[in-house]
Amino acid sequence: MAIEQRVLVIDDDKINLKILGDILRDEINVMVATSGTQGIRKAIDYQTDLILLDVLMPDMDGFETMNQLSRNSKTSSIPVIFITALDDSRNEEKALLMGACDYIQKPLNASIVKARVRLHLQLVKQRKMLEELAHIDPLTSIANRRKYQDTMVDVWQSAVHKHGCLSLLIIDIDNFKHYNDCYGHATGDSVLKKVADVLSDKIDSLGLVARYGGEEFVALLPDISTEEAQEIAKWCQQSIEGLHLSYQHDNFNGDITVSIGGATVFPTPNCQPDIVFNEVDERLRDAKNSGKNKVLWVEKSTMNTAV
Ligand SMILES: Nc1nc2c(ncn2[C@@H]2O[C@H](COP(=O)(O)OP(=O)(O)OP(=O)(O)O)[C@@H](O)[C@H]2O)c(=O)[nH]1
């Protein structure tokens, strides 16, 4: 089902709001606000795709509203079309210099309003598609390292704010080079896809799973305690072995397995996610060096006590 796009019109003049609503409503979901303050609140709460903003408003004018929208990380990427009076080229220039994507002149011409709004909504759709593609691993279709890093920043900040915990797993396929040597890279690729599917099935509803690179995956589990996270890690390990992706190499004859490092921490503002990542990575290396196919946990993180 196509996601309906939302346009927010901010104008203190109720007649203008009605005119714009009537022009656009048959094609798009239109929301209205009668002041800059109300508009900013609605833009944050409803994450609108486009804003039509009147320049002249009492209390907070269009420029100040735009200023506040661009300073807020939740609204800064929403494109804004200014509504200016005819022959108001000074304000048009100012609006464009402030970062407005376009302007529409009053009195409103229905077909021009529709055409401009349609064009900018199309651009929003394309930008969102590109953003999504930039966050997806093309081989496995799960999130990529960049998405993991962006999400980690958000999850970390939210945990700091709520004094909550988060768990992190690094999952690495064992002896994958041998598998590739045995069956070739194309079959190796299909293993990566199957492993990604298993991880995604389990983790999508709990947090984020991403392909970090090569044969290494990460799972980011907000608000998941040590016990729960260890159970999830065990489940992933057993489910991947349960795929029975068998191979032979030298004296080895068996199935694909994974080694997993994990930790659960309470993030603090003066600590960076990289510290936890490195600690988990160290436990993963311990797992590799002590026989593989196991889950090892960071017992006591240097940044704080594990949950
Ligand atoms: N098929 C396939 N192989 C990949 C891909 N990315 C990395 N690899 C392979 O993954 C293998 C990783 O090898 P190593 O780093 O030695 O790790 P390993 O053989 O799994 O050994 P351990 O990690 O110690 O268990 C290499 O053979 C890489 O070529 C990929 O996208 N597709």
Q: How would you characterize this protein structure?
A:
- By secondary structure, this protein is α/β, with parallel strands linked by helices.
- It folds into 2 domains: 6-133, 3-Layer(aba) Sandwich (Rossmann fold), CATH 3.40.50.2300; 143-297, Reverse transcriptase/Diguanylate cyclase domain (Alpha-Beta Plaits, 2-Layer Sandwich), CATH 3.30.70.270.
- The chain is built from 10 helices and 13 strands.
- The mean pLDDT is 93.
- Guanosine-5'-triphosphate (GTP) binds next to strand 7, helix 7 and helix 8.
- It comes from Marinomonas sargassi.
- Residues 6-121 form the Response regulatory domain.
The largest sheet is: 6 strands, mixed
Could you name the CATH topology of the largest domain? Answer: Alpha-Beta Plaits
Number of helices: 10
Query: Radius of gyration in whole Å, from Cα?
Result: 26 Å
Given as residue ranges, the uncertain stretches (5+ residues, pLDDT < 50) are none
Q: What is the residue-averaged pLDDT?
A: 93
The proportion of residues in beta strands is 15-25%
Assigned CATH superfamily of the largest domain: Reverse transcriptase/Diguanylate cyclase domain
Percent of residues in helices? 40-55%
